[in-house]
Amino acid sequence: MGKSKRQLHLNVFIMNTGHHEASWRHKNTEPENITDIRYFQRIARIAEQAKFDSLFLADGLAVSQNIKHGAFVGLEPFTLLSALASVTEHIGLIGTVSTTYNEPFHVARKFASLDHISKGRAGWNIVTSGSSFEAHNFSKEAHLEHSKRYERAKEFLDVTTSLWDSWEDEALVIDRTSGIFADRSKVREINHISDTFKVRGPLNIPRSPQGYPVLVQAGSSEDGKEFAAQYAEAIFTAQQTLAEAQQFYADVKKRLAAYGRSPEQLKILPGICPIIGKTESEAKEKEQELNELTVPEYGLNQLSNMLNVDLFSYPLDGPLPELPSLSDINGNKSRFQLVVDLAKRENLTIRGLLHRLAGGRGHRTFAGTPIQIADQLEEWFLHGGSDGFNVMPPYLPAGLEEFAQFVIPELQRRGLFRTEYSGSTLRGHLGLPRPVNQYATAAASGAVSGAFQ
Amino acid sequence: MGKSKRQLHLNVFIMNTGHHEASWRHKNTEPENITDIRYFQRIARIAEQAKFDSLFLADGLAVSQNIKHGAFVGLEPFTLLSALASVTEHIGLIGTVSTTYNEPFHVARKFASLDHISKGRAGWNIVTSGSSFEAHNFSKEAHLEHSKRYERAKEFLDVTTSLWDSWEDEALVIDRTSGIFADRSKVREINHISDTFKVRGPLNIPRSPQGYPVLVQAGSSEDGKEFAAQYAEAIFTAQQTLAEAQQFYADVKKRLAAYGRSPEQLKILPGICPIIGKTESEAKEKEQELNELTVPEYGLNQLSNMLNVDLFSYPLDGPLPELPSLSDINGNKSRFQLVVDLAKRENLTIRGLLHRLAGGRGHRTFAGTPIQIADQLEEWFLHGGSDGFNVMPPYLPAGLEEFAQFVIPELQRRGLFRTEYSGSTLRGHLGLPRPVNQYATAAASGAVSGAFQ
Fold first, then answer.
1. Which interval of the chain is the signal sequence (chains A, B) (predicted)?
2. Among B23, B105, B129, B139, which would you mutate to test the A interface (most chain A Cβ atoms within 10 Å of its Cβ)?
3. Measured in whole angstroms, how far is the alpha carbon of residue A2 from the centre of its chain?
């Protein structure tokens, strides 16, 4: 059943106690366990049993300003994902790492290592760091301007992909008799030189099972979309309506041709925070219960940052004040626009907007029955809105268990989602090709000759 | 038995196929598996069953110049150790991370994460990077001069320890009823400002089970010893004779008082590469067999780098040429001196020196029966030469299995080594105190007040 049908790709976005900002106060969550690896290993196993393509962790390089009221602090992605790799066999493992305050050699190396450790399941959510809180932890006075961050990100990707290619797949000879361990003609310096990075290489780890980790991107600004079209193989994005999703989907897919890429080489996965009930009213009650656990101060802080305006001096039950223009935003530009549009479309008060954002921070929240949720996913998937979804359980682990128990089987019944894994790498799950080694290809055609020493 | 006796501390130093440079050509090794995590997980389990205090990984930030003939390439320490944490429960996990080409925020965060993931088993072997090959992977023209590297390392430690203390142990309140997740008065900015580092903090992960990872150091130069006396809780060192070991031991222990520390707060663990035979002659034959597998080109490369002189133009069976003076060495100064002394003491030809270094790169190699090896360890331990040992199996995993099967039980019979773990943290195994939080203490006495926001 469904063998020949186009298949949904599902990622589960794991965030400590869940995506709803008040989830840590909910009776079904375990905020005491957010630094306990066994808690995350349990979640990873649930997601793997449900046949998700991948799981994903967000990240930032400064403590959240909202830790007084929010459970947003905890383990670091590389160490966490490596520990998850040990207890899973199929599910992809996608970590967020910034190109702004890192060195490409370190990042290329750690992802290659994670890809070896997981036997081909690593993915990199490539982000730029856009807050002064992060800048101040890395000896910088201020954070980089938006377009400069993307320039650096592009060069960062050029360096890391070159480093991953600095070893040919056949470089390890391991001939005990002759005493030749590695064929040095297949291990190359990359000699990247610019004002930003001077990196000689080669990398100090052989090429990994997937060649490169799956390259993922989440920014949806103009710069972000162009970056995605050039490099990304999957996008985590946020849209509230099918029309917005269709527009984004068509826009990004169209940009790929300019980089010699085909539409299937980039999977677009909008976020959805599903609140699941046996009946629609049960689902709405769950949503209401979560929203009543929110602390307005927390949401106001977050929304004030998002909109670059201090909302504390305005009445909660009144409308939004006048807002800055998009060009004045040097943080997440696309999220700004989405929130402004949402408030306008639904004519929301500040409190109403806080509640609409509490579940997914701008990602779509949908409360309904498993059938209703499956209907929504199918509609977007079949009508040019997405290639799958970034599933953001409102609370963990129970919200993921409910999705696995009630929504996944419904999607499987409709022939839209796998019932077994057919491969064991993340590229395999997503139907993405293994990258060709740029140097090996050039060497075969005689274009390069300079091997390492 | 042996309850009241002073106990040996044993670390196993894991290096791909083993410490002997030709180990990858030996019939008992698995060079095909050096990027396979299951291989390392097997080794970690053997070490844990043998009750080792810890296992340890070396590291460098450039590919070895010797990969043509040596299996020195592979997984990255943080990802590797996190994957080992998942399959072990007691053994300490010590990773090498350089202070020269890293940011203190990243390093502090990853060690705190590894310490949480392993539930208190992380250790940091603090090194400085001393090769131009490394510099060229990190946008630097040349590597830092020796004393500058140590200045940076000291400041790096000041920043990381402050970051680990930026969260008090009781900062997470997690009060569902009031909606208070964290007590922000117990989460502090560190506001470190100098020409080298400007780091505001706080760290974005709560204080870990051990407070700090166990701080380990391996440099034995003057700068290295002084650094160790100030910060280190364990030293991996290399001495060839009991007299050298006694001198080093007394020298370093004496320096601790100047930093208000007692001798027990620093464990000194000389390296030993044990080649184990049922009889002494079987052990010597094993050593000979390994030495015959060496490729002279490989050893000459390594020794030329160590001594800062090109040895390729001198006859292998002749003496060492005239060497530069210690002050001209900007790499590993203490290893230079050790090798010069070894060649002189044993009146070695270049080939003879290559063979003496093939097993442990300057660490002591000893071939003998389990009884003879236990005698050697006991002699150094009881006569002021060490607090335990850094065990460097010549080949893996068999060399570790032999040590676990034949030498450990002999040490246990003598009441010198644990038969069961009595705790579950690395600090517990080593008898080291959990660091006091510098800010909590100051706050209790009224000396600081500036909490985070």
1. none
2. B139
3. 27
Determine what percent of chain A is predicted with pLDDT higher than 90: 83
d(CA B234, CA B89): 21
Phi, psi at residue B53, to the nearest 5°?
Answer: -60, -40
Residue numbers of chain B with a pLDDT score lower than 50: 1-2, 449-450, 453
Return the ∠ at Cα B238 (arms to B289 and A202), rounded to 5°.
75
Give residue A329's pLDDT band: very low, low, confident or very high (50, 70, 90): confident
pLDDT value of position B3: 52
Residues in chain A: 453
Judged by DSSP in three states, A227 sits in helix
Size of interface A-B (CB pairs under 8 A): 202
d(C-alpha B290, C-alpha B396), whole Å: 13
**Chain A: closest CA distance from residue B255 (Å):** 33
CA distance A132 to A152: 17
> Which domains occur in chain B, in start order?
9-281+364-444 (3.20.20.30)
- Output the pLDDT for position A399: 98
**Beta-bridge partners for B61:** none
Contact A102, A153 (CB under 8 A): no
**Is A147 an 8 Å CB contact of chain B?**
no
DSSP state of B406: I
* Host H or E run for residue A368: strand A364-368
Asked if the C-beta of B180 comes within 8 angstroms of chain A's C-beta atoms, the answer is yes
Rounded to whole angstroms, the Cα distance separating B43 from B404 reads 11
The Cα of B84 is separated from the nearest Cα of chain A by a number of Å equal to 8
Name every residue whose Cβ is closer than 8 Å to that of residue A266 and which is 6 or more positions away in sequence. Answer: A228, A229, A232, A233, A234, A235, A252, A253, A256
pLDDT exceeds cutoff 50 at A449 = no
End-to-end CA distance of chain A: 55
Q: Strands A214-217 and A122-127, how do they pair?
A: parallel
CA distance A212 to A163: 10
Q: Residue B285 corresponds to which tokens in the numbers above?
A: 């034959």
**With bands split at pLDDT 50, 70 and 90, how would you rate the model's confidence at A447?**
low
User: For the residues of A254-283, what is the DSSP string, one character each?
Assistant: HHGGGGT--GGGSEEEEEEEEEE-SSHHHH
Consecutive H or E run containing A300:
helix A296-307
Residue in B73, B113, B200 nearest the CB of A205: B73
- Of A30, A64, A139, which to mutate for an interface test with B (greatest number of B Cβ within 10 Å)? A139
With a cut of 60, say whether residue A2 has pLDDT above it.
Answer: no
Contact (CB<8Å) A113/B179: no
Per residue in A372-408, pLDDT (tens digit) is: 999 999 999 999 999 999 999 999 999 999 999 999 9
- Give the integer Cα–Cα distance in Å for B256 and B31: 42
Q: How far is the CA of A20 from the CAs of A97, A284, A348, in angstroms?
A: 23, 14, 19
Q: Is the pLDDT of residue A453 over 60?
A: no
pLDDT at B177: 95
Residue A72 CB partners (closer than 8 Å, separation 6+): A15, A16, A64, A66
Where residue A261 falls (left for φ over 0; alpha for ψ -120 to 50; beta otherwise) is beta
**Please, what sign has the CA dihedral across residues B317, B318, B319, B322?**
negative
Q: Which of B17, B38, B76 is most worth mutating to test chain A (most A CB atoms within 10 A of its CB)? A: B76
What Rg, from alpha-carbon coordinates, does chain B have? 22
Give dist(CA B91, CA B79) in Å, integer: 17
- Give chain A's largest Cα–Cα span: 80
Please list, in sequence order, all residues whose beta carbon lies within 8 angstroms of the beta carbon of residue A436, skipping any fewer than 6 positions away: A211
Amino acid at B345: R
Q: What is the pLDDT of residue A1?
A: 44
| A345 C-beta neighbours (distance < 10 Å), count | 11
Q: What is the pLDDT of residue A396?
A: 98
